[in-house]
Structures are given as C-alpha cells and as structure tokens.
Design a protein that fits this description.
The chain is mostly helical. About 60% of the residues lie in helices and about 5% in strands. The protein has a two-stranded antiparallel ribbon. About 15% of the residues are buried.
Length: about 180
C-alpha cells in the first residue's frame, strides 16, 4: 500500500499550463473584479439619465406647442435642406429617423397644420413630394435650440465646466465607438 501512495505522490497532479502571452500581467480570476454588476448599474443609470433628459426636454417643448417627434423631424428637414433649395423627400426623412414612412406622414401632417412645414412637388418628378421648412418652421427651430439648451442645463447644473468636458469626451467615445447607429 505504501508503494501505491509513493507512486501517486511522485506524479504531478496536472501538467503545468504553458505560459500564455500576457497571462502574468492579468490578475488571477479570483482577484479580478466582477464588472458585470457595475456595468449593469451603469446601464441602468444611463437609462435613468436618458429618461430624465427626455422629460426635461418635453417640459421645455410644451410652451412651443410641439412634440419631441415633431421637433426631431424639423431638425432633420433643416439638416437635409440643401443650399440649392432642394428639400428632402418623405422617404429620406423616414430613413433618417429610422421609422416607417407612415410615421413621417403623421408628423408632417401635424407640422403642416401648424404652418411649420409644407409639402412641395418635386420639379423633376411630379410623383415625388418634398418637405420644406416655412418661416414659422425656421423660427421654431431657433426656439427648439433654446429649449434643448435649457433642458440640458437643468440636467448638467451640478457639474463643473471640467466635469462637463470630461462627460462630453466620454459620451463621444461611446457614440463613436459603438456598433449601432444612434
């Protein structure tokens, strides 16, 4: 029996694992913090912050008489409008907003009723309808910029200038490094 015990003790329990590059630089598994819980909390905080920003912006938009969706459509129409006077088509707007064309129709109907946009026929193709801003729509865009700044100021008020710059850099990194379009 002692023979068997000696034989067992002479054999290594497991062959040594070959050293992998960078392995010695990493902490042992038991020493590594579990970042999944921290990441989950961070994700929840980002969602709460996003909801808070949306509520603040919605409060700022109420006096203007426009919904967040309508505000977004106005911004997209302004961005797509070219210096030569060419305005975006409904399909361009739907693609940019990442919504179905029917949703754009509903938004355009409301904004047209308010006098902020108008439908105009495409001079090259009568079947195509383009959407352009009216003077009232351009004025509304200025009001929207102010409302957005006020909403963001409400949220960022506790931060110093340095902290705001740091946050801006971090958010830019997340947006630019993401795999999903924003």
């Amino acid at each position: 029996m002692s023979n068997t015990a000696e034989t067992r003790s002479d054999k290594p329990e497991r062959p040594e694992e070959p050293e992998r590059p960078g392995k010695s630089e990493r902490p042992e598994k038991s020493e590594r913090p579990d970042t999944r819980a921290d990441d989950g909390m961070l994700a929840e905080q980002l969602l709460r912050l996003t909801r808070r920003l949306h509520r603040a912006q919605k409060r700022q938009l109420e006096p203007i008489g426009i919904t967040p969706g309508q505000a977004r459509l106005l911004r997209v129409v302004a961005r797509f409008s070219l210096p030569d006077g060419t305005s975006p088509r409904m399909t361009d707007l739907a693609r940019s907003l990442e919504v179905v064309p029917r949703a754009v129709t509903t938004l355009v109907d409301a904004l047209e009723e308010q006098g902020r946009v108008r439908r105009v026929p495409d001079p090259a193709n009568r079947r195509v309808i383009r959407i352009e801003l009216t003077d009232t729509g351009r004025t509304t865009l200025g009001d929207l910029r102010s409302a957005r700044r006020d909403a963001v100021e409400d949220i960022l008020a506790p931060l110093t200038t340095v902290q705001r710059k740091q946050l801006g850099g971090l958010v830019s990194t997340l947006i630019d490094g993401g795999t999903y379009p924003c």
